[in-house]
Amino acid sequence: MELRELEYFMAICEELHFTRAAEKLGISQPALSRQMRTLEDKLGVRLFDRLGKKIAITEAGEILREQSGNIFSNINSVYEQMEELQNIKKGKLIIGAMSEELSQLASVVFLELHRKWPHVQTKIFMSDNIEEKVFRNEIDIALTLMPVENEKLTNIPLYIEEYFLAVSDDHPLADRDIVELEEIRDISLVLCPINHTCRKLIDAAFASVGFAIQPIIELTEVKSILSLVKAGIGATILPRTLLDSENDGTLKVIKIENPAICKEIAIVHHKEKYIGSAARSFINLLIAYVKKTKLNETVYPENFLVTF
To answer: Where is the HTH lysR-type domain (predicted)?
Structure first.
């Protein structure tokens, strides 16, 4: 079996069309068909079911596709490691974050990372399905929530994030330091939309005490949410780190109990992907920042909710 045959095979898997795959590879369609027949003869199995002009990958083909992906991933890893041995400090580092506060967390170490790796192009973006993007090798590392269910991903726990209630200085609850979750059920809330990760966590917490919330306003931008709260239009529930970074002194931040709303933050990367020096440096810088700011000293309250 030759790498060229596997390359041709993977192209067909991607296109599910011999003619389009041949055009992508720069060869003729008959030549590609001959290569696939030769590969099938070598393996003694059919890799594709040919249904007229359409094709479908067989069970044997699926096995070969998965293993071929691993082979090409390992080859790419070799090239990346050889490049680093030659001290070629360039390339891209793509970082994902599940939510806005995690994107801000990643941003705080960017300056130091740039000083160490000035020629590395760094990108960061947010997505609710960030773990899937890591698995598909669309991004290098990501900040997400525990637990990480995909066994192909490695996770590095960072810290526990707790959600707090934020109100304006003249709100009826502004003189409180602690409030129970049930006390919030009757106040006006400004929250993220229902499909956002943080909103799912909040909804699950309220459901655990037997009721659902109906926010008066839903907004995607945290700054817009806090602007309304500062103006006295409702209250909000957000992660403590995000509130600390956005609070200019006009908000009262109140601890929530019974249950507290918590989530565990982790860094994830693909187990089979080579993690280069720039990515390792980012991870180490982030861990150092978490320790310096004592975020990792947070412990779970006695009564808390962490799942949704």
So the answer is: 1-58
- Sign of CA pseudo-dihedral 141, 147, 152, 154: positive
Count of beta carbons in the 10 Å neighbourhood of residue 138: 13
How far apart, in Å, are the Cα atoms of 292 and each of 44, 53, 284, 296? 59, 61, 12, 9
Domain CATH number, residue 107: 3.40.190.10
Residue 303 counted as domain residue: no
Q: What is the pLDDT of residue 89?
A: 56
**Does residue 124 form part of some domain?**
yes
Per residue in 226-268, pLDDT (tens digit) is 999 999 999 999 998 888 888 888 899 999 998 889 889 999 9
Residue at 219 is within a domain: yes
Evaluate the CA torsion angle 193, 199, 202, 203 in order and state its sign: positive
- Rounded CA-CA distance 65/63 in Å is 5
Structural domain including 212 reads 161-262
Of 204, 159, 180, whose CA–CA distance to 255 is shortest? 180
Q: Is 280 helix (H, G, I), strand (E, B) or coil?
A: helix
Does residue 307 fall inside a structural domain?
no
Same domain, 173 and 242: yes
Report, as an integer, the average pLDDT of 279-304. Answer: 77
> What total of structural domains would you count in the chain?
3
Average pLDDT of the chain, as a whole number: 86
Each residue's pLDDT tens digit, 183-201: 998 899 999 998 888 888 8
Q: Clarify whether residues 174 and 231 are in a common domain.
A: yes
Per the confidence metrics, is the pTM higher than 0.70? no
